[in-house]
Amino acid sequence: MSPRKSQTKGARAASDKIKLFVLDTNVLMHDPTSLFRFQEHDVYVPMATLEELDNNKKGMSEVARNARQASRFMDEIVSAAEHDIERGVELHPHNDGDATGRLFLQTQAIDGELPARLASGKADNQIIGVVKFLHESQPRRKVILVSKDINMRIKARALGLAAEDYFNDKVLEDTDLLYTGTLELPKDFWDLHDKGMESSQHEGHTRYRISGPLVAGMIVNQFVHQESDRPFYAQVREVTGRTAVLQTIKDYAHQRHNVWGIVARNREQDFALNALMNPDIDFVTLLGQAGTGKTLLALAAGLAQTLDIKTYSEIIITRVTVPVGEDIGFLPGTEEEKMNPWMGALEDNLDVLNKTDDEAGEWGRAATRDLIRSRIKVKSLNFMRGRTFISKYLIIDEAQNLTPKQMKTLITRAGPGTKVVVLGNIAQIDTPYLTEGSSGLTYVVDRFQGWAHGGHVTLQRGERSRLADHAAQVL
Known about the structure:
- It is built from 15 helices and 18 strands.
- It has 475 residues and is α/β, with parallel strands linked by helices.
- The chain has 3 domains: 18-164, Rossmann fold (3-Layer(aba) Sandwich); 176-248, Elongation Factor Tu (Ef-tu), domain 3; 255-474, Rossmann fold (3-Layer(aba) Sandwich).
- The strands form 3 sheets. Strands 3-4-2-1-5-6 form a 6-stranded mixed β-sheet.
- Helix 8 (267-276) runs parallel beside helix 9 (294-308), helix 9 (294-308) crosses helix 11 (344-354) and helix 13 (404-411) packs across helix 14.
């Protein structure tokens, strides 16, 4: 065999191993950088995908912005091509070097024969037809449809075609592995870690400098606990090699340490209040099912630090306006008035907080409500871009419905002296194409773990009522 034939055969074998991913429109509208997320493999964009991008490019929504950005990426890649587009354009020069494959655009009419029961005029079916044609014309190569549309993937598989969800946006494959912010210490913890232990006092708290086998798994600002006749609750303040510093926390379960009349009803709420009331922690995330007290704790801590301690000048609350049922249409009034129907949780929690002072009387409570109202501003996400919040206490509610990009936009609004509190329940996602693994809430919990000025707690127990707690478990 001649060297040239050997090289040709080797190149063909290598190209056969490189997969061809056909992108559905919703993948590009969800993540425009998906073009560069397939490493050494090739990417194919059908004409129907380009048509749908064109149809969705108008407007100020996140989807429209992503459609425009995807088109810009493709324009930049194709414009730089010096050779025939049919042979594919190298992606390597247009990214950080992660993508070494090629971008292929549909340059010819493809008449893929689909079953008569699939309407030929529908864009989804046209894309499936392209996948079928590529599958038949390149039998030695694996052709895979990538779509976030479940029904489209089902139709493709029914026709014997390979189809996958877009996984690259997922922070974690299994959200059970998501950082909880807490760590239970084993019963023999002190026996294993008492060698060379040092204790000291720091601002009314006891600090323990320990070393031992469990130190390597500890994370800065993680809460550790050991249940016994005398429970031990502490926070990891430092981790250096095989040495860690544990600092005892404030007992917010006791009435004398109440926060705006609220006391912690369980261990995780105690941890959450320690994170919320700590001036050294600028970013707090609270996860938990309905009724675990996320909003109430965040508001109580915000009011205490805004009206009593005066650490912050005012509280700003925002949330994603995704309806659970049918939309009720346009709402009249100012920005704050339009947001009020979405802020029922705020009103409910303010009622609870306003009733904590029994001695104030009806007039006193009315005055307190007016004072609270003057220091709380309700803002819409739509007008956040370009703003800077200085010395504010920013609460982002229902954050599980935010994409990672939206979450970044919001958190980067924080100026000097601002604290950002993010609340949500990843089991209640209402935004299309977002999952527990790809939610912006999951994203920030994972990325901020271990930061010296960030804290996270996953609240476990519902405290709303025995009915709500039972319903959350059995329904």
